Amino acid sequence: MARLHSAVELEELRAKILASRDPARPCIAVCAGAACDGMDSAAVAAAFLGEVDRQELDGKLEVRTTGCHGYCEKGPNVVVTPGDICYFEVQPADVPDIVAATLKGEVLDRLVYKDPRTGAKSVHMNEVPFYKHQTRLLIGDNPKIDPMRIDDYLAVGGYAALVKALTEMSPDQVLDEVKRANLRGRGGGGFPAGSKWETTRNAPEKTKYVIVNGHEGESAAFMDRAMLTGNPHKVLEGLIIGAYAIGAQKGFMYTRHDMPLLTKHVRAALAQAQDYGLLGENILGSGFDFNVELHFDVGIFVSGESSALMRSIEGNPPEPRPKYIRTSVSGIWDKPSNLNNVETWANVPQIISRGAEWFTSMGSKGSKGTKLISLSGHVVNSGVVEVPMGTPLRTLVFDIGGGVRDGKTLKAIHFGGAMGGAIPAHLIDAQLDFDEMSKLGAPIGAGGLLLMDEDTDMIEMARYLLDFLVNESCGKCVPCREGMQQMRHILTNLTQGKGKQGDLERLEDLAEVTGLSSLCALGKTSADPLKSMFRYFKPEYESRIPGGSGGK
Amino acid sequence: MSEIVLQIDGLEVKATAGMTVLQAAQQAGIHIPTLCHHEKLEAFGGCRLCMVEMQSRGRTSYVVSCLYPVEKDIVVRTRSEKVDKIRKVLVEELMAHAPDAPELVKLAEEYGADRDRFERKASFCVVCGLCVRYCNEVKQKNAVGFIDNGALREISFIPEIARKECWDCQECFALCPTSYAQAAYLLTEALAFPGQRKAPSRVTKVTEPARRVIPIKPIAAPA
Question: Is B143 part of the contact surface with chain A (CB cutoff 8 Å)?
Fold first, then answer.
């Protein structure tokens, strides 16, 4: 691959790639996202390639292995273009029939979506209920891209936003656009990304860093993985634009060590961007230099906490430190370090390409754009979903999610994993909004949405979530290390019918003190699920105390 | 050095930029309880007992005074209903490990902590890390370190280093609020290098008499 020296050269390359691709030539996209991979979509992809070989279809039919399409429940997923024809639960044995139908320009009826209630069939992606209520700005390109090929990203308009930023905008203008877009951090805090960027930009130190937090570890969250594995260049493009705005010379991608496919794709993306001159010195002849280093976690959840993550990059144990001085001022090696999560960075290119006005036209009053959601639990359709901010939870749960599994009734909607909270079913008309959900006690967090049916034991749920955190905490501070263990112990007793007088009071004290006095966000929010359950499901807890008095 | 004036417990306190609230309070003779703090060591912020209530720009927050840098015009209260409750529950959590540690007994009296409130734990180490940090920062030997994380976090002597260094030093023993450091060392010696420690080259002199080594009482059965 030849290094590109200017925006013109990049646009020439893009034109060449597009000219070599006939949009009318059928392409079969096989999902290799985490869930489909687990259902051996690799065998399906291999069968397609075998069929192409056997029938000598090279040039007539393209087979593409892609990142996550979203509809995990119905995997392995296959999408055929043109027409975005969706086939579900595809097995290797189905492959000859799909190829035959595709070559004839027909649809293979038996593998298309069938409504479980009405039996109505949906062929195209924009008709399938799971997809048609979504706005897939970030994840929508996944079926069009082989994550190992930068040319696929260029073919869908990739790196055009970087070109625009470098050639038409000053760093200040880029920063201003992101600020006006009111892009709020997608990693859990919902803090305005533009303000954070500005703090790092204005910090006096010359050496500055930008970081992708790709350490997704929240229970029931798998959307960042789908994003970064399926379209690593989108995230990287956002990072390079951010570095340009902030004035950073070096970036880090921090992600999990235990996802081989993600590692492979990110490594390839960085190498290809380097080859094309989208990373390195004098990017596209702009005079802007920027390099990115890939880093891996050490296997605990707290590694994803920003200050712990920065310690980890330095080569130290991932222990958080108090943020009385913000990491955007003093982060990695005490240099100003701007950290955003995968989804936040992925939003940047479209904000630059299409502008802040377009971005703020979507969403609720305080939360703009779209949000990736991992839908799981007792839901009919689990998967990765993208909807505009402000979407009612009812749309997510029923229209997209298809409601509760096995015909049961919805009991609770849990957001934000082990540090989130649960709200009862009657609040289903609440909007997906950072502030509204926080007020209700179920902050969106990174976007893991877990449905719970009528048979869910809320005490067991709280115990389960705490059990996760007890093992994922670093153990440095007393309230997090000891408080969580004690809460888990009491909850375990309650689930085993060993509740005793005073237990609820003990739990309330532990929850309050752990929240107030822990060092980092892991401890501070560890009792949030419990607090939300005390708010909405207290009688269930009281019923586990002998005498029924609630332990007081 | 620029002078910063802040308020602690209703008193105007003068401090210099870069000081922590704890240092400013100590300088003014105002007591804030600590467990993991030691003046020779970098502030750790692990025990959280030094947490105070702080008002700044109309907002109330709870911060650890050993790490929070002094700021102009902040109003600090070293005792309040919330602060006392935090300390009470933290002491109760620590007493699940070491119900008879003198410092904890004293704190329990002051804050009304119930030593039997929470499930008793097998280890009497409170993981304050004084031994680990002292060995690293002052002695620069790293004979004792933290291992594991979360609920499983503990201190552990590294036999290869401990065998050479510890008998001559023993300074961390007196730092330990629960005598666990001493016990952990002896256990390591018994298991990893019995009778093989380096002979003392000089008479052992404990130079840190801050905490006395306490006799270990049998652990009471949980209520």
Answer: no
- A449 in Cβ contact with A374 (< 8 Å): yes
Instruction: Return the residue of A nearest to B145 by Cα.
Output: A317
Contact between chains at B118 and A486 (C-beta distance less than 8 A): yes
Spatial distance between the Cα atoms of A431 and A316, rounded to a whole number of angstroms: 41
Model ipTM? 0.89
Assign domain A158-360 to a CATH class: alpha beta
With bands split at pLDDT 50, 70 and 90, how would you rate the model's confidence at A185? Answer: very high
What average pLDDT does this structure show over A337-345?
97
CATH classification of A10-144 is 3.40.50.2300, yes or no? Answer: no
Are the beta carbons of A445 and A420 closer than 8 angstroms?
yes
Set of chain A residues whose Cβ sits within 8 Å of the Cβ of B47: 477-478
Residue type, position B152, single letter: L
Q: Is A320 on the interface with B (CB under 8 A)?
A: no
Question: Would you tell me which CATH number, out of the four given (3.20.20.240, 3.10.20.600, 1.10.1740.10, 3.40.50.920), belongs to the domain A370-453?
Answer: 3.10.20.600
Residues A444-455: b if buried by 16+ CB within 10 A, e if exposed = bbbbbbbbbbee
pLDDT of res. A210: 98
pTM of the model as a whole: 0.90
Q: Please list, in sequence order, all residues whose beta carbon lies within 8 angstroms of the beta carbon of residue B91, skipping any fewer than 6 positions away.
A: B49, B104, B107, B108, B111, B113
* CATH architecture of the domain covering A458-542: Up-down Bundle (1.20)
Alpha carbon distance B97, B161 (integer Å) = 27
Task: Output A265 or A326, whichever has higher pLDDT.
Answer: A265
Helices (H) and strands (E) in chain A — how many of each?
24, 15
Which of B47, B67, B119 is closest, CB to CB, to A489?
A: B119
- Placement of tokens 């949980």 in the chain: B222
CA gap B117, B113 in Å, rounded: 8
Q: What residue ranges do the domains of chain A occupy?
A: 10-144, 158-360, 370-453, 458-542
The answer to whether B50 and B66 are in contact (CB under 8 A) is yes
Cβ–Cβ gap B93/A479 under 8 Å:
yes
A323 touches chain B (CB under 8 A): no
